[in-house]
Write a structure and sequence with these properties.
By secondary structure, the protein is α/β, with parallel strands linked by helices. It has 10 helices and 5 strands, in the order ααααααβαβαβαββα. It has a 5-stranded parallel β-sheet, with helices on both faces. α1 packs across α3 and α7 packs parallel to α10. It is elongated. This is RpiR family transcriptional regulator.
């Protein structure tokens, strides 16, 4: 049996991740009603995730909760605030579990061998790009960062083959970033994309994609200000790993 989740199973798994603090008190029937999926979908999802069934998953979750003393101080916190706190923990935990060590190693080599590095980002992702820019420059790399849509599209057409483009995008659909990735890709330039959208349009033009986990919960639903925490985690791991590898060499 393949471990790849179907759309309904992915929806369920995301629902569970968003409501982990409630799961210990939910029967499979109640979870089925709350998530609006069949009990069969729940069982299939759990087996694909490595559990014998929902009961096994629930019991292991209860055991972890009891043994996890570092979060005991949250027991008195309001339920909704606790959910907000754990939302960030889930994003980090899931992002770490999704990271491919081989991809990190490959990305390190790309950074090491590149003549110049171009970092493109828009919106809140610009803060992560700016941090990467400064760190790479401190490490002796010639690095340029841009968040201007016109500059991204124009500059990406002129980048040389021996250079590297790093694109930071939460949804992988920002049109100027997709255009920049396409321009670089068509000119034979190596591209690394840091994103949370496995099916984003930008991925088809990315030589390498470092994928993070994005929570479906947003406390600012009327605005596009979703957390970039997964992207920041990946960028920091990448640069920390780069320092470790280059120091040893």
């Amino acid at each position: 049996m393949t471990n790849k989740l179907s759309s309904s199973e992915s929806f369920l798994w995301n629902y569970i991740q968003e409501n982990l603090t409630d799961i210990p008190n939910l029967s499979i029937v109640k979870l089925s009603e709350d998530a609006n999926v069949s009990t069969a979908t729940i069982v299939r999802t759990m087996k694909k995730k490595g559990y014998s069934g929902y009961t096994d998953f629930r019991q292991q979750l209860i055991s972890k909760t009891k043994n996890n003393v570092q979060y005991q101080n949250l027991e008195k916190v309001d339920h909704d605030i606790k959910q907000a706190i754990f939302k960030n923990k889930y994003e980090v935990d899931n992002t770490l579990s999704m990271l491919n060590v081989g991809s990190i190693e490959d990305a390190i080599q790309k950074i090491k061998k590149s003549s110049d590095i171009y970092i493109f980002a828009r919106g809140f992702s610009e803060f992560i790009a700016q941090e990467m820019l400064v760190k790479l420059q401190l490490l002796g790399k010639n690095c340029i960062m841009s968040s201007d849509p016109n500059i991204i599209v124009t500059l990406s057409k002129r980048i040389k083959r021996e250079d590297l483009v790093i694109l930071i995008t939460l949804n992988g659909e920002t049109k100027e970033l997709v255009a920049g990735a396409k321009n670089a890709f068509e000119n034979g330039v190596s591209t690394i994309t840091i994103t949370t959208n496995e099916t984003g349009s930008i991925n088809q033009y990315s030589e390498m994609t470092l994928l993070g986990f994005k929570s479906q919960t947003s406390y600012f639903p009327d605005y596009e200000v979703r957390s970039r925490l997964p992207l920041q985690v990946i960028s920091r791991i990448l640069l920390d790993s780069y320092v470790i590898r280059t120091a040893k060499e």
